[in-house]
Amino acid sequence: MSDDGHHEHNGHENVPSRQRRRFPGISSRAYEHPADRSALVALRKLSGFDTVFKALSGLLPERSLRLLFLSDSVRVSDQQFAHLNDMLRDACYILDLEKVPPMYVNQDPQPNAMCIGLDEPIIVVTTGLVELLDEEEMRAVIGHEVGHALSGHAVYRTILLFLTNLAIRVAWIPLGTLAIMAIVTALREWFRKSELSADRAGLLAGQDLQASMRGLMKIAGGNHLHEMNVDAFLKQAEEYEAGGDLRDSVLKILNLLPRSHPFTTIRAAELKKWSESRDYQRIMDGHYPRRTEDKDTSVSDSFRESAASYASNVKSSKDPLMKLVSDIAGGAGGIGGRVRRGFDGFTSSSPSQEQPPADEPPTDTPPRDDE
Description:
Blueprint: H1 34-44, H2 49-59, H3 62-72, E1 74-75, H4 82-94, E2 103-106, E3 113-116, E4 122-126, H5 127-132, H6 135-151, H7 154-165, H8 177-206, H9 209-221, H10 230-242, H11 246-256, H12 264-275, H13 278-284, H14 299-316, H15 320-330, H16 335-347, H17 351-354
Parallel strand pairs: 2-4
Antiparallel strand pairs: 1-2, 3-4
């Protein structure tokens, strides 16, 4: 380790021989994606969210949740899945999470991991994930889940889990179905953003970008690394973002809404971009916000950071819809014609209907209200 300071769980042995930096007192603000923070603020302000939160807190006490995993999963310890236990303590040491959360291995062929809990976080990994990933890839995943714990994400992930998987048990909550669906949609939007934050935490814990990339590729394509290539995988994300027209942009949004996780190629591209950023280098150099400073942080500053991040993403995006938004913000001409051409496919039934009359004014003329 590059930091020899004493820590209560610095008794682990299964750590990489390479030097890694430790981050004493690091605040989750150091790695949280700006969209994650702003989506969480929006979620908390959503009408009915407090009601759901209180109802679920009473519905399934923390003890019941822990008993569930104790009875039907294997708790990671020095005696069971000892190598995972070492990785867990190692990740908590690197990210300076003082209380190591319990971790369980659950029999499920689907590769997955989650950090849940209403009072205190619990980490759960599936056998499918354990069997799929090598040691360094698994280290990044466990660091990812420790990042969720450090950020306080577990409680919101738990609410999302119950509202989607156990909806029948919360049918008595005094809110209409539409209100519940609005909360689920908002939770999914936040959780997709929180995954980008946790991916960054996983990179900070493992400090091996290639391992993080390999893990994401395996989650997308299975244990066939000899058939896959990181550069080609990242190229898919670029093609996905830039491809198509406005109709495809809308379809991308519709495809994403039911998902709890972002698309894997996008996660890989986002993580690589962050690893090359000045923010990441500053953290690795030891310059990062501390938890002791969290109480002094300004909400308005966080909003400004989020707004700046969104503006930068929109400006640099190759997605047709984002380009349109950027043009509108910049007052570029030709917007009306571009919108009309982009969405013709939704309303036209034949190619001939898509052709404008010979005497139609130029496409940069704004459409009239009756159009």
